[in-house]
Amino acid sequence: MSKANTKAVKKKATRRQKKDWVAGYLFIAPVTIGLFIFYVFPFLQNFWFSFNDVNKFNMATFNGIENYKQLFHEPDLLLALKNTFLYAIITVPIGLIISLVLASFMNSKIKGKGLYRTIYFLPSVTMAAAVALVWKLIFNGDYGILNEILGVFGIEGQSWLTNPDTALFCVMLVGIWSGAGYNMIILLAGMQGVSKSYYEAAEIDGAGPVQRFFKITIPLVSPTIFFVTITGLIGAFQVFDTLYMMIDMDKNPAFNAVKTVNVLFYQNAFVYGYKGYAAAISIFMFVIIMIITVFQLWGQKKWVNYD
Amino acid sequence: MRKNLKRLTAVGLTAVLGAGLLAGCGGKDGESKDGKVELVMSVWDSDQQPVMEKMAEAYNKEHPNVTVKTQLTTWSEYWTKLEASATGGSAPDIITMNVLHVEEYADAGILMDLTEAEAESDLKINENFPAPLVDGYTVDGKLYGIPKDFDTNAVFYNKEIFDKAGVAYPQDGWTFEDFRKTCEDLQAAGLGEGVYPTAINRNSGQTTYISSVFANGGYLLSEGNEKSGWGEQATIDAVQPWLDLVLDGLSPTLQQMADTDPDAMFQGGQLAMYFSGNYMITSYNNTLEGKYGIAKRPTFNGKDTDIINGLAFSVSANTKHPEEAKDFALWLGSEEAQKIQGESGVCISARNDCQQYFVDAHDEVDCQVFLDNVANAELLPHCKVTSELSQVEKKYLEPAWKGEISLEEACKNIAKEQDPILEKMNSK
């Protein structure tokens, strides 16, 4: 009995397992198929294109590393890299601090929390194009409400978005403003996972709110902070939509001053029609983001607390 | 209950997703069992969409088996979208084309060669249409588009501002010096805050300085598109007087024009004079109907020149219904179709015998000047890398427009950077 029986038992188990697998695969199928069609395949095609001369209509002829050679002679590359890094270095930390502060307020006992939460989260559910358009009007040099307000205090305004010195900072402001609410919600979720007993113990020992924030909240939500930093940095390196909507490529004289790597990519791919070269730019950016993320993953051991 | 609700939502969402995917896969066939054909025609101008639909209806009356659907895509996305759909082999059957793009689309094999079809038809394109337009859509001796409409330019002036300032309206036959004097007179009369005599934008060459370049014996692109003409002294001398208007405060600054488009400024009654094409009349009428006049452009260097540009109907090489699409495109060039278009008053029909309809459609303002200008107009300079060349122009003309560098320095730099781009284009 022994051998035949165990076999039968085993077989029965695999059948059930198989059933589970099928169900499992069915569940992840919509996302996986989408991922392959819209992310993995285009990424591979993009990688292949970066070694080809590709015209507007995707007709490709292999040209080796010609595109990468051209990239290192690109007159605007340094400027674009500078702008991209500047954007990331300014928006990510400031955005993080603001959303941390907002989240801890939302986490404390104050009235009308729900309302504030909604208000801060609104930009995240608003279309980037609509956000950009409204801010464009706010910053308008002739009729913008910002200049009107400054005028009340006797400060003379200016054309914020068309002045090369201020345009990038205006875009950063919008980037921070529209990202803060989303990060706040994620951080808030992290904070609500922190046990109340830590705070009670700290309070009994005489720790003030500021001390509690730095000694308890920050270390205990550090995994969430880490997550927000990584996604924030990746997002900042790929900034495009607000820039595209707020700074008109044809007419705005500040356009060159705010050009980021992604804009450089867009310009080459969809304005000039050099898709192979544009593919090389995007691979270059991919490598930069990957290196930075690897460094972050390595560096997290020093400060992220997973206990 | 709650759990059931969740399950229900999940099932519902999956169904919606699945249906979406399936729908995405189901190709459009265009031809149903009863032999009916549906053609798609792309257009970017929402002002023109209604009249294009009207033309499609008229065609449908004569050809009941063919219906034409218009597909509106705004100008800023039009070419990106067309590029993508042409790459995927699903371009609209009838494509609204402009001279800046026709060459590269023809080269890539996206447009159908209409030479033979035109020769077999009774369209007589060389007889019935202005030569610069036919030339514009002929690439390597082959015809790739049936001219649809054209635009030329004029000076639009706001009568209220002139009356208030007590300055005489622009007169036909005036010179550039007269124009500048008028600007100065308006300025001296005091125009009120935020109101300017005119606006000369860096990127408005088509309506302003390019025709002066021709009048002065200069050029932007040499014969055969081999060399940039920006470095030529005759070119620089023709652009300088236009730029001086900006530097002397007779026009808003470059930054102001970037914040608020001069078109919008004119519509808002903030410009006394503005150089524009006939295609803007419909928009200007929204706010200024009856309050503005149209005068001929001032002569430059004693010459009366203008720039002509125009659109055409092209046929996709990949259309599933080549015969129907070709027939419809040729019909769009017929007197019947171009009359419908002209009478709508949104654009000037390209066909010689239908141009007058546009003028007749506008009682409120005299549009004859646009037709008169065809005789002495040159086609807008263009080549396959126009968008790249214009980025170079932007790079150097902007600081010149702000007065940070001299125009001469800007122009020399433009030529220096445009020449290698042209060389690369010609070597391919």
UniProtKB/TrEMBL annotation, chain A:
<dbReference type="InterPro" id="IPR035906">
    <property type="entry name" value="MetI-like_sf"/>
</dbReference>
<keyword id="KW-1003">Cell membrane</keyword>
<dbReference type="InterPro" id="IPR051393">
    <property type="entry name" value="ABC_transporter_permease"/>
</dbReference>
<keyword id="KW-0812">Transmembrane</keyword>
<keyword id="KW-1133">Transmembrane helix</keyword>
<feature type="domain" description="ABC transmembrane type-1">
    <location>
        <begin position="81"/>
        <end position="296"/>
    </location>
</feature>
<feature type="transmembrane region" description="Helical">
    <location>
        <begin position="85"/>
        <end position="106"/>
    </location>
</feature>
<feature type="transmembrane region" description="Helical">
    <location>
        <begin position="166"/>
        <end position="189"/>
    </location>
</feature>
<keyword id="KW-0472">Membrane</keyword>
<dbReference type="Pfam" id="PF00528">
    <property type="entry name" value="BPD_transp_1"/>
</dbReference>
<dbReference type="InterPro" id="IPR000515">
    <property type="entry name" value="MetI-like"/>
</dbReference>
<keyword id="KW-0813">Transport</keyword>
<feature type="transmembrane region" description="Helical">
    <location>
        <begin position="220"/>
        <end position="240"/>
    </location>
</feature>
<protein>
    <submittedName>
        <fullName>Sugar ABC transporter permease</fullName>
    </submittedName>
</protein>
<comment type="similarity">
    <text>Belongs to the binding-protein-dependent transport system permease family.</text>
</comment>
<feature type="transmembrane region" description="Helical">
    <location>
        <begin position="277"/>
        <end position="298"/>
    </location>
</feature>
<feature type="transmembrane region" description="Helical">
    <location>
        <begin position="118"/>
        <end position="138"/>
    </location>
</feature>
<feature type="transmembrane region" description="Helical">
    <location>
        <begin position="21"/>
        <end position="41"/>
    </location>
</feature>
UniProtKB/TrEMBL annotation, chain B:
<dbReference type="InterPro" id="IPR050490">
    <property type="entry name" value="Bact_solute-bd_prot1"/>
</dbReference>
<comment type="similarity">
    <text>Belongs to the bacterial solute-binding protein 1 family.</text>
</comment>
<dbReference type="InterPro" id="IPR006059">
    <property type="entry name" value="SBP"/>
</dbReference>
<dbReference type="Pfam" id="PF01547">
    <property type="entry name" value="SBP_bac_1"/>
</dbReference>
<feature type="signal peptide">
    <location>
        <begin position="1"/>
        <end position="23"/>
    </location>
</feature>
<keyword id="KW-0732">Signal</keyword>
<keyword id="KW-0813">Transport</keyword>
<protein>
    <submittedName>
        <fullName>Sugar ABC transporter substrate-binding protein</fullName>
    </submittedName>
</protein>
